[in-house]
Amino acid sequence: MARQAFIYGTIILFAANLFNRILAFVYQYLIMSLIGAESYGLYQMVFPTYIMALVLTTAGLPLAVSKLVSEQAAVGNRAAAQKIFRTALVLLLVSGVAVSSLMFMLVSRLTLPILPDSRVVPIFLICTPAIFVVAVSSAFRGYFQGLLQMAPTALAQVVEQVIRVSIGLYLSLKFLPLGPQYGAAGLASGMVAGELAGLLAILWLYFKQKKHRPKEARGSVPGVFSIIRALFGLGLPVAAGRLVASAASAADSMLIPLRLQAAGYSLREATTLYGQLGGAAFTLLTFPTVFTFSLATSLVPAISEAAAKKHFVTVQHRTAEAIRITVLLGSPFLVFIYFFSTELSGIFKSPNAGGVLSTLALAGVFFYLQSTSAGILQGLGHPQLPVLHAVAASAIKLIFIYYLTAIPSLGLKGTAWAYNIAFILTSSLNLAAIARKAGLILDLEKLVLQPLTAALLMAGVILLTKGRFGSIPLYLELLWEFALGIAVYLTVLFLNKGLTKDDLKRIPLVSRFV
User: Fold this and answer.
1) In Å, how far from its chain's centre is CA 392?
2) CA 201 → CA 132, 134, 207, 446, distances in Å?
3) Which of 179, 219, 302, 235 has the alpha carbon at shortest distance from 65?
4) Staple 41 to which of 136, 226, 271, 344, CB 3.0 to 4.6 Å?
């Protein structure tokens, strides 16, 4: 039953994640088309610092709640599971109030000295209530996930995204005539409204289920202080990794516009270019992660289980499979993104970001491997290693951003090369650590030769057919080229045995037909 619940939950979360990613993609298109890159650039300057505050508030507790509740629920000790949840909820309530209040009071002092545009201050003020809202909702999500009930989290995510998009777009369009900063304020307001709607949805489900919840079985119930120690013992390493990532993003949001100005751009031009980097280039580059992340995540618990049982051959096999599947899924998207970078960026009203996107695509497979390899190391019991590797890569990335972005002939392309260096370094360090800890010897034929052959043939077909469809609309050409490229890619993989029947069985919904 537990395995069935896990598979069912994985499918629900995958479907919700896919829906949300598609809706976010459409939202991003509407923002760049109707609101503009300058407004989005202002919003993006605030967002990394907001995420950092959120990481400090939650301290990795939602994941810890999920694990501890799951352990107690597995032995039928619902009283202990409830006490763990309530303790975490109180901690998150207190931290949410404290951090959001502190950020609200200090926002001017924190932002003006470090962010290059003073227009972000009111946007930051709008975002601060969301810190409290997310902290509270994360406790409920961790609780439901610990019980292997993924539907509440999925529903809350969908409600949150729908409200975020509808209210954010409405308010941005309404206030945009007053100035770009007001358009950005509309986006921030939509984000806060979405988080609040998600919290209300998951609260409704919690109290609805509470009426039908079985009576708490009495068992050994741990004390509050032992629960707090367990929560922070599990949560702090996770929080450290997320804090590093959010701190790196915050540093990027401060440095990139400044170095663009050093390259000769005005403040408004630098803000607009920064908005195009996040609003167009990274939106397109990260879209395939809805597939790579879902499949890679499903393998991580299996790796952790095999490692705990000291089944090292199984660990090596599952680790290699996670890496291979990530490469197989990411490669065709990167080929398509590379050859149609200008057209895809043009859809987001950012044709100048085409060169940036094609540059990022060159190292995109390492970008996808970052999360997979980090998850594997966590499954192997070494969560500190991805954090250390990310810190080293982020420091080097900032050095390259500082020098390359300020070169007038490179500008934002220099920023893209700095990101590529960080992608390659982080993934390489993670993979080297996996090889040491798991004794893994990667099969270069399966990992490199087979997907590379398929990707090169796909690229050849695109080169031969691109622009040869007459005057058909752009979206039809893109759909046709993508479908043709995927068909070629899959055909070659089946012929060279890079894709097998067993691979198809791992895909939710597809597996039942194989």
Assistant:
1) 20
2) 16, 13, 10, 44
3) 235
4) 271
